[in-house]
Amino acid sequence: MSSLLPWLFSAIMLGFACAVVLNRNPVASALSLVVSFLALAGLYVSLNAFFIGVIQVLVYAGAIMVLFLFIIMLLDLKAEERRTLNTTATLGGLLVAAIFVCELFSVLRHFHKGSLPFPPLAAGPLDDVRGVGTMLFSNYNLPFQVIGALILVATVGVVVLSKRELK
Amino acid sequence: MNDFLGIDWFFLATSLAKTLGIIFLVVLPMVSYTVYAERRISALIQDRLGPNRTGIPFTNIHMEGLGQPIADAVKFLLKEDLTPAHVNTFYFWLAPCLAMAPSLLTLSVIPFGSWLFGVPMVIANVNIGILFVFAIASLSVYGIVLAGWSSNSKYSFLGGVRSTSQMISYELSLGLSVIPLFLLLGKLNLVDIVDYQARNGWLLLPLWGEGLTLRRWLLLIPLLISFVVFTISIFAETNRLPFDLPEAETELVAGYHTEYSSMKFALFFLGEYAAMITGSSLIVTLFLGGWHLPIPWWSSGAGFHFALVDGAAPGIPGILGGLFNIATFFGKVAVLLAFFIWVRWTLPRFRYDQLMRLGWIFFFEIALVNIFLTAGILFYLP
Amino acid sequence: MSAPQMLNVQINGEWKQFPKGTRVIEACAQAGSYIPRYCYHPKLTSPGNCRMCLIEMGMPKMGPDRKPELGPDGRPVINWIPRPQISCAQDVAEGMGIRTDSPMAQECRRGVMEFLLINHPLDCPICDQAGECKLQEFSVEYGNGGSRFLEHKVKKPKKVAVGPRVTLDAERCVLCSRCIRFMKEVPQDDVLGFVDRGSYSTIAAHPNRQLDSNYSLNTVDICPVGALTSTDFRFKMRVWFLKETKSFCTSCATGCNTVIGSRQEVVYRQTPRENNEVNSVWMCDYGRLNFHYLHSERRLSRPAVKGEAAAWPAAIAKAAAELRSVPANEVAIIASGSMTNEELWLTKKLASVLNITLHDIVPHIEKGDDLLLSADRNPNTAGAKLLGVSSSKLAEIAQGVESGRIRVLLVLGEDAAGISLAKLKSLVTVGLLPSAATEKASVFLPSAGFAEKRGSMINVKGRLQRLNQAIQPPGEARDDWEILRDLIQAVSGANGVYAIEEVFRQMAEATPALAGLSLSKIGDLGVQLKLE
Amino acid sequence: MAYTVPRPKLTFREKLYLPAVAAGLAITIKHLKNMLLGRTKVVMQYPEEKWDSHMPPHYRGAPTLVRDDDRERCVACQLCEFICPPRAIKITPGEIPSASKSEKVEKFPLEFDIDMIRCIYCGLCEEVCPEQAIFLRKDYAITGLSRAEMVHNKKKLYELGGTMHGLVNKWNEKK
Asked: What is the pTM of this model?
């Protein structure tokens, strides 16, 4: 049964990911994405990576998607639902997806099943908070700080852009 | 038997028992009686009496109105369930469920007792307990925002929007205010946090264990600040007065649940009070020692000390101790709930801009500075 | 005719000019100081018996040269008469001085009021005149607060039926004799008079006679107090509740101007309104009381198809289908002389849309009198003639219907006019009350009565007058013009008009006699048309 | 003209707000304590305890009609209907038949309805009544299960009003 759960979560995640694309209603799409994120978090948790799973929920489902939904709700959804399919964009999207699938297959083709055994997963709960922390602040300290600075710049940029019109 | 089909059946059964027990035997009655307490206390504060009549039906037994929550529940179930025209029916139905579920979910990681029958009194002992609480609590905003949006009403929508921004804003100070704790303890696990407090004194009452050192007393300053910011943020997160802007009835009728009636409204109601219970539980767990109650004891061997009620002890004393600890926990929660109610009937509502300013400019900064303060103390007094 | 000679009169210290022959009471009213009165009525003679209009008066002081002495302002010095004079029986004279508000005049009024109220029963709560009672009004303005009369009041007969339509309460009477003079002077039926003497003097009808003139209810109008009340209106509604709508009487071709008193969609009374071109200030009892049919129990207020209640759109569609079901020469329209010009105009339009040539109104000729009641009881015969609906083809229509040559008949607001309807294929009726025609009708459409609609009519003298709406039509009944408009729309498919003003505008454009007029330009008193 | 409300200058202690919050909490808890100890007594246990005995003589409860010894006082003058601000009163006047004992009064109300849903208990009807026929009595708990039930008809109004002696003797002197 515990081996059943990852499959279940994967199915939910993929199903709702499709729903994100296929739904005409933006609110439905956004909520599907939330469910997809939750299923992804479930996947992480079933791999004993509690921290990543919880952060997935906290950051993506709890904060980012709420803001998304917030913005979507201020839109005219009826107009959104009336919009016809943009043929060029659709075809372009399909093309990109097809190329990606081809690349995926070409990579997988070179991967010989069973030739490389995975290291066994740690039994019991991982101390992944400490693991992630150590990793971030030792091996990846510079990229982490750079990303921090980048986000700060982005934040300042947003403030500058949005305040300009008020003058 | 214990390992049939690769599943730990004992674990499953006890977890289920704990879940059902905590929800149906503790939380839901507690919600109902919190509503009752709210009404009685508000009445007493305002020199009234409040509901003091409802007792056993068809008799003259009043029981000081203790039957009121049951009557309310029956009423909620029997009221007409209106679905207004032009609402988005699916989301209109989904929203109350989403409002109710997160508050109950978060309870799963909170240790509400020590041990009972050799079972730890926490539904899920998760390493990152507090983060889990924040993650699930952050989902509760969906119920509100969907309710506001799907009702297709101005009041509801404004209430929903306000609530969303309020909750997102105060999540920041909520999250930041507990970081000093983790700096001190190095753990996110709520069970461990309570254990630490049982051994070394409550975070706000460092009277025993290592609590008698200067470092611990110095640390009390940032912890006190943490406690205040955390408590106030919990007020904001649960939309309680003075932060009940989402349902400010003078402006927004009833905010996001204006269009709801009958059991759907009751679900919002339950969700709100359940969130209050969760919030109080969190405060109790993090700052007030959780299920632990120090009992002054004198024994010839150790002299005067605080005894720990041990639920893990074998036999009858263990069972009694476990029950005592559970009672202690919920007793503390009840006191905090009373405090919530007391505050609600004392303070006036903030203006919305004041609320946002308070969240972003005041509490956010205080929590941030508090982290540095704690880090400094811990650095110089390791 | 030369302009009347103007006389200088000083009223309350101000010099004003009035034409010779003006009564003092009228001159004072024109100068802005209304003098209270009971017996005086501008349309009747002045006996001067109520003494309410007492004023202080003076004539120019004559010098030895028989010329008026002039004061420092160049005006004659006035020699005030030391005793009060009645102002209703006196014409103005050159150099006359009048004081209406001097202490003496005020004292006189207070005294007269006290005398008039000595035996008054003070039963205002049950008196129908309350609210429009001069005794109440002048008592407030000029009277004392309380009575000094300690003796027993004189008892007089109450609730006396002096006529079939008038009830007398002698205790309330102030013996002003207006009713006596009215009956003597206007309908010239001298049936009322005073009997008994002193305190016991009362109004009474001549022995073996009744106040049964067709104009008897005018005595109720002119009675300044609640002595004479209308038996019909008695105790029905307090007058202050009544919404007053200016209209005119549609019971005969005279078209006396009226005020309709209604409350909450019920008409309670009609009273005459002054229009010196039509009815002076009088109207006949027949016309005045001829409104109860509006609230008749028998009133039809739902459209019906073959006697079954139907919705308006269905009924209109059915009626239109019936009108078009046979060739135009087999259809006839019987209109009514009590329809408004607008309705007649739309009738004519309907006829021309359907190419119907057979249309006429039903004449109603009864005995008239030489005062107000016209022999022609159709209020708008002149309008029907002007708009060409009346065509003296009624006999032909009757013959055609009876012989079966005419198979579809549209009857508007009339009964079958004695025509046998047996051979008709279908009959469309518009009306208010059930009749032989509505019983046989294939389609019945309920319409509005005179107080329920707007519109214009032309009276026997060619005066265009306007009806105003006092109440809403009952139930589902609708304005006639809307019914006709919908019928035209249903048979022709063209878009209709949406306001009665628009109907009038179209009609005025097509009719030379009405050129330049609109409903609002008609005004409350009507417009005299130049008809050939 | 715009007027800026001057804001008081707050001291640091006031700016902290926490002392004020504490003071507020102290006030409310004091009320709670006094209620619990039974020191405050402002609430009346409604269905058991009633205001009836405490009601002042001028209390304005439900409007009612009163009867004289042998006749109904109301003569349907409709002044109350006229004065009634919410238009709760509806009167249909009628004529007293000649055979009746109180024929001299001539007029009486055929129907007299007061819509108690509309009534605002202002007492203007009582004040305006020239016959002293309408009085505001002490009934205040006017309830009903339907709108129709809340309209007090003549019968109900006389039931509530009862008989009153004296006061108006004017009609007795009439012939």
From this structure: 0.65
